[in-house]
């Protein structure tokens, strides 16, 4: 029987109650990791833990508001308390925020998107990095909008560009400490973030923006995250990987 790629590893995954985070949590557990499922939604978080345990994996839920530094501190402490160490973190939690042109964009909307999507990633790494003393891998989930612009989403685009830059800067600082830090840029993926906010016609129009001609699936992104989290990507750090059906190639 082949060795599971994350055997004996401990991973924190934020926003793991649905979408890309859930797909990653299920895949990581299947590949042998003990997964700390972090999400603001307790029901969703517990549901994912139950799915993992039913499949024979190991997981625990820690309620986390990624906009709050103290929640990140608590999350890392809990991971170490429960499993003894920390090897991997996937900073995935994010929101779309309101739509609006920059000259009319709601100030509270801007603040909330930046707090969760950008500051949340900084707070996460701020507490994860000291815990990764024996080395490890951090995967920050950015977006294709971490490289391209989009009308009516100034906060989201700014935050995701920020995540890409923050990832590069931090990767340089920790490259000689056996800690690798990379970012992933999903295209438009079929997750609750999209399906709960857009109608069918809009979803179809968005699908056509991708040369592959469809939306991505959460599991397709999770496979890339798994590779970056594992030792298979041992020479990869400070990189940005799109998983976007050709979107950025245009």
Would you give an account of this structure?
The chain is of the alpha/beta class. The protein has a single domain, classed as NAD(P)-binding Rossmann-like Domain (Rossmann fold). The chain contains 8 helices and 7 strands. It has helices spanning 19-30, 42-54, 69-83, 107-131, 154-174, 192-195, 200-207, 218-229, and strands spanning 10-14, 34-39, 58-63, 88-91, 136-141, 179-186, 240-243. Helix 1 packs across helix 8 (218-229), helix 3 runs parallel beside helix 4 (107-131) and helix 4 packs parallel to helix 5 (154-174). The longest helix is centred in the middle third of the chain and has 25 residues, at 107-131. It starts with 9 loop residues before the first strand and ends in a 7-residue tail after the last strand.
Record keyword descriptors for this entry.
globular, 250 residues, Rossmann fold, 7 strands, 44% helix, alpha/beta, seven-stranded parallel sheet
CATH class: Alpha Beta
| Proportion of residues in extended strands | 15-25%
| Total domain count | 1
Query: What is the H/E order?
Result: EHEHEHEHEHEHHHE
Radius of gyration computed on alpha carbons: 17 Å
Main sheet properties: 7 strands, parallel
Helix content: 40-55%
The geometry reads as globular
- Kindly state the number of beta strands: 7
Q: From the helix content, strand content and strand pairing, which structural class follows?
A: alpha/beta
Name the CATH homologous superfamily: NAD(P)-binding Rossmann-like Domain
Gross CATH architecture: 3-Layer(aba) Sandwich
Q: Report, as a whole number of angstroms, the end-to-end distance.
A: 42 Å
Mean pLDDT: 97
Which segments are poorly predicted (pLDDT under 50) over 5 or more consecutive residues?
none
Strand order within the widest beta sheet = 3-2-1-4-5-6-7
Helical stretch tally: 8
CATH topology label: Rossmann fold
